[in-house]
């Protein structure tokens, strides 16, 4: 092979690349696997989740009206996503935060094990302590009394002990009427910081081992049964997606083609399925490349 051949082969390869990588819906976002109901962006996954979960720069993000939070993991078996809040305090650092809230109409609720502790609330002005009798904060309805041991563990963390506020102001936030729209507006509550823990890793007195962040359950239908059409699509290496005015299900196949079933028999496309412009474009370019190839010999 002379240099020209190599150049041409390279050119062909470059032209073929868009064909190979034309599956629009991603199967991973960074290290996190994307499966139903999550997609990396518009048109992928379940339409009801698109607003809340998106992939930006290889980082999966959970969005509510209070902000955007990195998704650290997804447990598809138990239908839980784990999110962290960059403004949250942990055993390793404290920082000011505005709080964390879920949207009332979002398909997410807090997993029971997730515990929130408010730190550094104003004893004078926080509505949490309004009911405290003579400044005695051990009997405040919005704080869980059983949280005292948790608070003392938290106070063994150096950054938290350095907040210089009495441990009695640490409030394990547990308002009874949490409702589906969990609101933790720290400005309203007159607290400067909070921490969230989703697992104590069986070491309640060793906060350095705790898992900080929030665990959220998600729900995509009444029984949370995986839709059959979607598992068939995923089994055939497709990604569950949707398109059209009515957000109808489509299976986005590795070749870039969408089918209404799965990717096993791409020859049985429904008549509505056509080549993508990219697909057509690639063929045009390849034909052009072949022409160039042919002319040069
Ligand atoms: C397939 O579906 C995805 C997701 O809805 C969309 O972005 C893409 O344009 C569709 N491709 C074709 C060929 O229709
Ligand atoms: C604070 O209130 C709790 C519960 O009502 C009570 O047991 C405790 O003695 C009180 N502490 C002080 C310092 O008054």
Automatic annotation (TrEMBL):
<dbReference type="GO" id="GO:0030247">
    <property type="term" value="F:polysaccharide binding"/>
</dbReference>
<dbReference type="GO" id="GO:0004674">
    <property type="term" value="F:protein serine/threonine kinase activity"/>
</dbReference>
<dbReference type="Pfam" id="PF13947">
    <property type="entry name" value="GUB_WAK_bind"/>
</dbReference>
<keyword id="KW-0472">Membrane</keyword>
<feature type="domain" description="Wall-associated receptor kinase galacturonan-binding">
    <location>
        <begin position="25"/>
        <end position="85"/>
    </location>
</feature>
<protein>
    <recommendedName>
        <fullName>non-specific serine/threonine protein kinase</fullName>
        <ecNumber>2.7.11.1</ecNumber>
    </recommendedName>
</protein>
<dbReference type="InterPro" id="IPR032872">
    <property type="entry name" value="WAK_assoc_C"/>
</dbReference>
<keyword id="KW-0732">Signal</keyword>
<keyword id="KW-0812">Transmembrane</keyword>
<feature type="transmembrane region" description="Helical">
    <location>
        <begin position="273"/>
        <end position="295"/>
    </location>
</feature>
<feature type="signal peptide">
    <location>
        <begin position="1"/>
        <end position="22"/>
    </location>
</feature>
<keyword id="KW-1133">Transmembrane helix</keyword>
<keyword id="KW-0325">Glycoprotein</keyword>
<dbReference type="GO" id="GO:0016020">
    <property type="term" value="C:membrane"/>
</dbReference>
<feature type="domain" description="Wall-associated receptor kinase C-terminal">
    <location>
        <begin position="191"/>
        <end position="255"/>
    </location>
</feature>
<dbReference type="Pfam" id="PF14380">
    <property type="entry name" value="WAK_assoc"/>
</dbReference>
<dbReference type="InterPro" id="IPR025287">
    <property type="entry name" value="WAK_GUB"/>
</dbReference>
């Amino acid at each position: 092979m002379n240099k020209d051949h190599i150049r041409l082969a390279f050119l062909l390869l470059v032209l073929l690349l868009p064909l190979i990588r034309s599956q629009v819906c991603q199967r991973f976002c960074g290290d996190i696997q994307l499966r139903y109901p999550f997609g990396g962006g518009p048109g992928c996954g379940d339409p009801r989740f698109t607003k809340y979960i998106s992939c930006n720069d290889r980082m999966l993000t959970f969005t509510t009206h209070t902000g955007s939070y990195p998704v650290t993991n997804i447990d598809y078996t138990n239908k839980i996503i784990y999110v962290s809040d960059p403004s949250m305090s942990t055993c390793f650092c404290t920082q000011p935060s505005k709080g964390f809230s879920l949207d009332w109409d979002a398909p997410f609720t807090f997993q029971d094990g997730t515990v929130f502790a408010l730190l550094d609330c104003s004893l004078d002005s926080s509505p949490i302590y309004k009911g405290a009798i003579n400044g005695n904060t051990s009997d405040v309805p919005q704080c869980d009394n059983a949280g005292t041991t948790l608070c003392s563990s938290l106070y063994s963390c150096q950054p938290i002990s350095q907040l210089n506020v009495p441990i009695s102001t640490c409030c394990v936030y547990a308002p009874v009427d949490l409702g589906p729209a969990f609101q933790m507006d720290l400005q309203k509550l007159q607290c400067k910081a909070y921490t969230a823990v989703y697992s104590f890793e069986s070491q309640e007195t060793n906060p350095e081992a705790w898992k900080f962040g929030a665990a959220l359950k998600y729900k995509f239908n009444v029984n949370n049964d995986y839709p059959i059409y979607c598992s068939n699509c995923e089994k055939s290496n497709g990604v569950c997606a949707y398109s059209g005015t009515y957000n109808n299900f489509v299976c986005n196949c590795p070749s870039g083609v969408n089918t209404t079933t799965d990717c096993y028999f791409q020859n049985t496309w429904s008549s509505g399925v056509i080549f993508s412009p990219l697909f057509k474009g690639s063929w045009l370019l390849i034909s052009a490349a072949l022409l160039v190839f042919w002319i040069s010999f």
